[in-house]
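Help! Submission page says 'invalid entity' but I think these are all valid:
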Amino acid sequence: MVDIAMHMMDIAQNSIRANAKNIDISFVESQSDNELAFCICDDGDGMSSEMIEKITDPFFTTRTTRKVGLGVPFLKMTTEQTGGEFQLESELGKGTKIKAKYMTNHIDCLPLGDIPGYLILLFIANPNLQISFEYEIDSEKFTVSTAELAAEGITDLQNAEISAAIRAYVKENLGELVRIRKASSFLC
Amino acid sequence: MSKIFGGIKMAKIKSLADLKKKQDEVRSKLNLRDKADNPESLVQIKVAMATCGIASGAKEIMEFFVNELGKRNIDAVVTQTGCMGYCYAEPTIEVQLPGQEPVVYGYVDSKKADKIIELYIKKGELVDGIIPQNYETIDNK
């Protein structure tokens, strides 16, 4: 994984496979603490306590098509290499919450990557899911969600022109937000 | 100010109202059918988007399909799926033409994706690089 956007897609794919109906993605940047907390919360199948113990083991996976599962171990690795931390809460039948904290002033911190691009692909590919996204820097906030778009009557997500427009919308607003980010951050 | 994305030039989009306007504009141009009503009659493309797929560039392939199918006026649904077990051949995609068995293609790049659209999706000709995942054997019959 070369950027945080890839992790976002990867972890969201886990939620989709766990039959989640709602996925909440949030990024909270705190400039004074040099921290980025990236959080994905879903209402999918959840995991038993035994599974939670094994989830960061690269040689554990629930799938039968291959014998390794690298998504979560990679995420843990990229957070810990910056001095951050990785947390996971999950309950069977309720859902899973993954929180990854990056120290943004560490040289090994991954860049954010193409967050709008991956987010739009998630929207396009999962018309039956409710996905919400928020990005916050020092209490300035941008949010977008499939519910919000639907409430405005924007539903033709599969149309290439419209998905490109949504992408531009997210990019524009995120770009506006990150202007206040200080230069010592390695996020971009 | 204008931005270019996927070859489509567009005005700056800053608010939900701008988005709504864009959708109305697009809708008036073409008669959108509700795809969700009859997905069986459409070409379905599933892009493998697990750790292995993402690391190999599945995003670019998926964006390519979304943009190109739109440009070439092919009614298709592009969705994402998990790992199919062919991590060595990522990016992999599964293409299902209406009323046919799905076919899995491996090592897809934009050149091959173009070939798949032009030859397989448009004309039904099989393209190199099929991973035999779904074929039936005598034992199973």
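Support: the input was valid. A stray whitespace character was the problem, and the output above is from the cleaned input. The CA atoms of residues 135 and 141 of chain A lie 6 Å apart.
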